[in-house]
Design goal:
Layout lengths: L13 H10 L5 H20 L4 H4 L11 H14 L1 H17 L2 H19 L7 E3 L2 E3 L1 H17 L2 H23 L25 H4 L1 H6 L1
Antiparallel strand pairs: 1-2
Length: 215
């Protein structure tokens, strides 16, 4: 009497599953590449539109303003003309302040890395798993917001950033108030939003498509 062979049970290939899971990139590489390319193009275009630094430091064009209203008018005109140069000075002030405070720089870079790799450019599937716990999109966003508040307001990062911004803005205002803008000719057809880091005023779909899709 012939014996029937036992049914063959399907066996999943654990190695192939693990390999496919590991092959999934933790970050949406095309989105990151597109955002970095857009950021690079914006910065390059902004620097291409900067004014000659010799005009910025021309000592023959400096004089004391006659009144507060005259100083405010000079600041507006000079900012329209030296926008990229002024923003570059503020950025250099921020960079110098952070470099002289390495602990604050480390905290800020860690916070930015957490936003980038844990939320902004991380694919929503599979969900985030940390320390054996699964976090949903809303929970991840809430944790990052709380972490940002703690880092900015309860550490030295906030004071360093605010003090650097105040120093940078003070330098810009003093220069703009004492620089006579009579010899400056601004192209009236130049868009007001064009300038260094002009992508900040762009629409979310142009600036970061993946970030806009999450909102």
């Amino acid at each position: 009497m012939a014996t029937s062979s036992p049914p063959i049970l399907p066996i999943s290939n654990q190695q192939s599953i693990a390999t496919s899971a590991q092959s999934q990139p933790p970050v949406a590489t095309p989105a990151v590449r597109a955002f970095i390319n857009h950021l690079t193009d914006s910065v390059r275009n902004g620097f291409a539109q900067r004014r000659p630094w010799s005009e910025l430091v021309d000592r023959s064009a400096f004089s004391r303003p006659e009144s507060v209203s005259d100083a405010a008018l000079r600041i507006r005109k000079n900012y329209s003309y030296f926008r990229v140069n002024y923003l570059s000075l503020v950025a250099l002030t921020l960079a110098f302040s952070l470099l002289t405070n390495p602990f604050s720089l480390l905290l800020l870079l860690s916070l930015l890395a957490a936003w980038v790799f844990l939320y902004l450019f991380r694919p929503s599937d599979p969900p985030l798993v940390l320390f054996g716990r699964t976090f949903s999109e809303r929970e991840t966003l809430g944790v990052l917001v709380v972490l940002s508040v703690v880092v900015v307001f309860l550490t030295s990062v906030g004071s360093v950033l605010i003090s650097a911004l105040m120093v940078g803005v003070a330098i810009v205002c003093v220069h703009g108030a004492f620089r006579v803008p009579d010899d400056l000719f601004l192209d009236e057809q130049e868009p007001a939003a064009v300038g260094f880091l002009s992508f900040l005023g762009a629409t979310p779909s142009n600036a970061a498509p993946v970030v806009a899709a999450r909102v």
